[in-house]
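Q: How would the structure tokens look for this protein?
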Amino acid sequence: MERELINKEREKDILRDKERGLSDEEIGKKYNVSFKYIERLITKEKGVNISRLNKKKRIRRFEPENFQEEKTSVWSFKNRGNWATHSGDYRGNWSPYIPRNVILKYSSRGDLVLDYFCGAGTTAIECKLLGRRCIAIDINDKAIELAKENLNFNIPPSLFPDFEVYEPELIVGDARDLSFLKDNSVDLICSHPPYANIIHYTDGKEGDLSFLDVEDYLSEMQKVAKESFRVLKPGKKCAILIGDIRREKYIVPLGFKLIDVYLREGFELYELVIKRQHNCKTTGFWYEKSIKQNFLLLAHEYLAIFEKPLKKEKENEKQTIQNNFKIIPKELKLTPELPEKFETTSVWILPSDDFDKILNSNVLLRYCKGSYLVLDFSINQNKFSGEEIEEYEKLDLLIIKSSFLSGVHVSKDMVEKFLDELRKLVYQKLPFVKDGGYLVVQVRDVRVGRYIEPIAKRVIDTLSEKSLKIKEIVIAVPDVSGYPENDRDFLSIIHQYLLIYEVKR
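A: Here is the predicted structure in token form.
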């Protein structure tokens, strides 16, 4: 009983210090408690997972300074955005730059936007600022209360005189049940779901998906995707932000798994954006630990922008002409050079002039202590060409590249042929890779017709060998300014993937 009273008093002291504005780091040192302990305590006491308890937002401006819409497949916001009542106080909320871009690109004034994981109301605030109607729901009534506080502001009529301001409708509800909405009634879905058992948004409220482990989470999100498809108008977009997670030193590709959930419900993938995170520490302790223990800090999320097709394709319309081509991988030789600095996060922004050299060096120096082999699927005059593959001694590292995916028109046939030949090649050469060695597959997404073929996701789906454990998913991007805009309304695809597997027999 005495210990329980002491704990209660300590909890009160911690909450008082939070009210006074002490940081989590200061409280952790003062009371010898973890960040997770502080987070759980605040969520239990306040009913919502927030980082600050005493700060009321003072509006200094109603729109971001020098804003420009994103033109490429990699979005990076070093300043998360603090116009209007936006802040990062709600744990895990997304930067307002994301819904602002999505709303401007894929909706018009007066359109109805739905956010079924409202949180603190980031999407709803942007809808109010941009002249869109909005319905925002959340299963947590305390989150809805917080969102109402954040939406309690008036926009000066002189600021935006040319469009009507709509007050968002906030509802306590469940994303799995949108029965209050009619079929084909929503113009845009823009939402940031919780991840599988990473950040908890309530104190264990029934129906809170943030407490579920991966398989149960995906099962429940299937219901969300089904309702999303029902309420969205044909031809309209559904934007979902999701990231990967790490379990027992290996990557769980939660992002690709959730994308698959929405695709199975009938959506097509219109864009696949990489959202770069900037809160990863890459120097000092984490830099040394990343190299010593050979892991990367997760610094990427996926913004999947789906489209509900205007009509379903008939089976005979899905078929394409079969080209008579053959894929034979070509062997390459690499010369590793010590980079000035090892990349320590999952997003590698590399100088464009030395992009391949620095990328190859990071891979070789991190994952190879002895022998390695590099094979490249390339194309010449509409036929894949290369050299015959010989047998090898035991390898520390096998690298498979796919140069043909860059700079050519890729058809569905080519994608399927590549995946089939990749599977055969991996299973043929895997016995030559040492136990504890690595397989690295370098690919990029491609657009086939109107929609994205998520090649990295397709590769992970294809390579189902039990001995292959996903060690890392790396996003590699050339660091150049002034990317050329793509045709029509599409984003320029500038990123590549390194799928890094550890061989564990």
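The domain at 323-503 is CATH 3.40.50 (Rossmann fold).

The chain is about 30% helix and 25% strand.

Upvote if useful.
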